[in-house]
Amino acid sequence: MKVGLGFDVHKLVDNRKLIIGGVEIPYNKGLEGHSDADVLVHAIMDSLLGPANLGDIGKIFPDTSEEFKGISSLILLEKVKFLLEEKGYSIINIDCVIMAQKPKMAPYITKMQQKIASILKIDEEAITIKATTTEKLGFVGREEGIAAQAVSLIKLKKNKNMV
Length: 163
Known about the structure:
Family: Belongs to the IspF family.
Radius of gyration: 16 Å
Site (Transition state stabilizer): 34, 133
GO molecular function: 2-C-methyl-D-erythritol 2,4-cyclodiphosphate synthase activity; metal ion binding
Low-confidence stretches: none
Keywords: Isoprene biosynthesis, Lyase, Metal-binding
Strand order of the largest sheet: 4-1-7-5-6
Largest sheet: 5 strands, mixed
Distance between the termini: 15 Å
Protein name: 2-C-methyl-D-erythritol 2,4-cyclodiphosphate synthase
């Protein structure tokens, strides 16, 4: 088994939808980025890619590529799942935290878990998503951006060729 850590942060800007965990959250700002800037899914992807020695999302999905401009991060997450399966890994669990002063995330967490579990084809109980503020400290506290962190546990599947 291997443990992976992922972290991501995006700036809050006007005239963008706020997408976190694959869920559109009503808010007067959204996250700036090349894709849909889903900070939670980006952290999850990095936490899965790292322990499988696949690099990070910047390597796999470069922000210089038009192919990924405006793309749903859930589509990218599905590609990460495929890459893990190609290397023989399965996902055991994912534990995440979203850091946002506003808006409140609690009403959307169950839907986020459902969407992510559906894409990864794992049980919803294998994904824990928590949310916190930073008590008005730092860029999150000043409502300049939102951050997310994820820790994942993956396991190499045994096959008949392995000892």
